[in-house]
Amino acid sequence: MVSLFCLPGDDAIDAFELARNAGLFGLFIFASVGIFAESGEELGSLEMYSCDPRNPSPCELRLVDRAVSLAAIAIHRDLAAGHPPNWRLPANRTPRANLLKWPVSPN
Predict the structure, then answer these.
(1) Alpha-carbon torsion 56, 57, 60, 62, what sign?
(2) Any bridge partners for residue 49, and if so which?
(3) Would the pLDDT of 73 be above 70?
(4) Which tens digits make up the pLDDT trace of 9-66?
(5) What is the mean pLDDT of residues 96-101?
(6) Distance CA 102, CA 46 (A)
(7) Which end of the chain is flanked by fewer CB atoms within 10 Å, N or C?
């Protein structure tokens, strides 16, 4: 199972392109669900892919709904805290910036 949360306005590729690329890796669409605030505002979407071409069971659909609800709460709280709607690393910071440096040998 592979899951992807997309935010509105992301520079992500569109749903068709995403599904096509997933197919290149042998993945099949499992679920595609919009994430909305209580006000109806679109907060994003959840795309889920599986290795087998199948539909989610009723139990799995409840789990997907729970994931969507939790994502809506997290996104809404983050936006309410004043964070910009882009959780990527800043352009001037590399992912390895917080790694410890190897100790310098005393020799």
Answers:
(1) positive
(2) 2, 29
(3) yes
(4) 665 567 678 878 888 999 999 999 999 988 888 888 899 999 999 999 999 999 999 9
(5) 46
(6) 39
(7) C
DSSP assignment of 28-87: EEEEEEEEE-TTS-EEEEEEEEESS--PPPHHHHHHHHHHHHHHHHHHHHHHHTT--S--
Strand order in the sheet with 2-6: 2-6, 42-50, 28-36
Q: CA-CA-CA-CA torsion for 103, 89, 84, 36, nearest 10 degrees?
A: -120
Q: What domains can you pick out in the chain, each with its CATH number?
A: 2-80 (3.30.450.40)
Return the ∠ at Cα 101 (arms to 96 and 103), rounded to 5°.
Answer: 165
